[in-house]
Design goal:
Distance between the termini: 16 Å
Number of helices: 6
Order of helices and strands: HHHHHH
CATH architecture: Orthogonal Bundle
Radius of gyration: 47 Å
Oligomer: single chain
Shape: rod-shaped
CATH topology: Helix Hairpins
CATH class: Mainly Alpha
Largest sheet: none
Structural class: mainly alpha
Number of strands: 0
């Protein structure tokens, strides 16, 4: 707000136009801009104000904090390199283990597929056996009934007996096949157990190999979090010191020779900061009068 705007607002207030909320909002926005400008000016000029006694505390605190910040950044970089190396080591371990695991998993899938095929064959055999058993019982009952009829042709009785023998032979063959498939299923189960056991052993071995890398990763991540938190705190403190220095230099840029020399390349920014201060003061004045 300029003095002219202030006069216009004063006149409007005499007619009952009170805009206190707007004035406070403008003042807050301008104050935020002013604080940012102070921090920018402080960042630009702080190496040049060592001789200003009033800023000695801020100057030497900045020297200390910037040195500590560089030390933390160095440690942070080392931790990040350590973390990257640990991730590479872990990836290498996983890569070494992937090919044998792939072969074992392929064997396991093949064994499971074979067991499923054998189970289907066994079910087919059981279904055929049940059908043959029913046919055998039917033929046996037929022979029993026909044998009691003395007038029944002998040829049909002989044919029925032959069918009974045929069905009995088929049933015996199916029983043998069922036994063979059961043995193959049992052998397949044992083979699958061996593959699972080998997979478990290899995975356990891989976990043991990767344990150290995982521990390094965890430690590095923890250290990185600590260093980043320290950096964040230092950045906040440094930003505040920049603001304090920028505020002092901007207020004494024309009265203090050292400040004037340090700020000679930033006159435009200092003028803008002065205008912002005046505007904030005028907005507060109008808000208090509302």
């Amino acid at each position: 707000m300029t003095p002219a705007n202030y006069l216009v607002a004063r006149i409007a207030r005499t007619f009952g136009l009170h805009r206190k909320t707007k004035r406070m909002s403008e003042a807050a926005s301008e104050m935020h801009l002013l604080r940012e400008a102070e921090a920018i000016l402080g960042y630009q000029v702080w190496p040049k104000i060592a001789e200003v006694e009033e800023l000695a505390v801020e100057y030497w605190n900045l020297r200390k904090l910037t040195q500590e910040r560089e030390d933390i950044r160095t440690r942070l970089t080392e931790c990040e390199h350590q973390l990257a190396a640990a991730h590479d080591e872990r990836s290498a371990l996983l890569g070494q283990a992937s090919e044998p695991h792939h072969e074992l998993l392929a064997r396991r899938s093949a064994a499971i597929a074979e067991l499923e095929s054998l189970a289907r064959q066994r079910d087919d055999i059981l279904n055929q056996a049940r059908s043959i058993k029913r046919a055998f019982e039917g033929a046996k009952m037929k022979l029993e009934v026909l044998s009691k009829d003395a007038s029944h042709p002998q040829a049909e009785l002989d044919a029925t007996r032959a069918r009974l023998h045929e069905l009995k032979a088929q049933f015996s063959e199916l029983k043998q096949r069922r036994t063979e498939i059961a043995d193959r299923i049992e052998a397949g189960d044992r083979a699958l157990d061996r593959v699972d056991h080998e997979l478990s052993d290899r995975r356990h071995h891989r976990r043991e190999q990767a344990a150290e890398a995982f521990q390094i990763i965890a430690d590095a991540n923890r250290e990185i979090s600590i260093h980043r938190a320290e950096l964040s705190l230092q950045e906040t403190q440094i930003h505040q010191l920049y603001s304090d220095i920028g505020r002092y230099v901007s207020r004494h840029a024309y009265a203090n020779p050292v400040c004037a020399k340090a700020a000679k390349d930033h006159r435009a920014l200092i003028d803008v900061m002065g205008a912002l201060r005046r505007s904030v003061a005028l907005n507060h004045l109008l808000a208090d009068q509302a």
